Amino acid sequence: MSTRTVVHLLRHGEVDNPRGVLYGRLPGYHLSELGARMAQVVADHLAAHDVTVLLASPLERAQETAAPLAQALDLPVGSDPRLIEAGNWFEGKQFGVGAGSLARPGTWPRLVNPFKPSWGEPYEEIAERMLAAVADAREAARGHEAVLVSHQLPVWTARRRVERKHLWHDPRSRECTLASLTSLEYADDDLRSVTYSEPAAALLPRAATTAGA
User: Which residues form a coiled coil (predicted)?
Assistant: First the structure.
């Protein structure tokens, strides 16, 4: 009989970002009131699961998303820097046409290679650190479940790597909405399935589209 282990990759809830900047790894960006509600919904959803390992990116929004889950499961929240948001040159800037960074010619050299990408941390490096965190969490939770709270691009990159898809992609195609779960199910060390769910879907119509992730 093989041992079943599940590693859930949880994207954090909505962030309070009134200036609409790409906040990236900047400190001081916390969950909005709606984001806190999303985190509680996910905690309620996972409360009955056999979760024995709970880790989060060191950024505030990830730690705050993990907090109600820690309370529901009576687990400490570990901090794993490998789960942090992807590095991005546009961090702290508004990104887009009009008054955004795309309207400034000085930023264009950062956009020449979308396959790497040229504007930030290489996809290969994101995939490597995320899957290392997944492997360690899988071992620590063997026979049970683990929850890793991270960010949209790291979660999506990890998913594309385990599904053996190329890592470059159109950001608009990401299936990784706020407070969503990307769940990796293993039999021993073999990946058997990848499933996606949105426990906080009922709250999403109110959620603003943010420039961060």
Answer: none
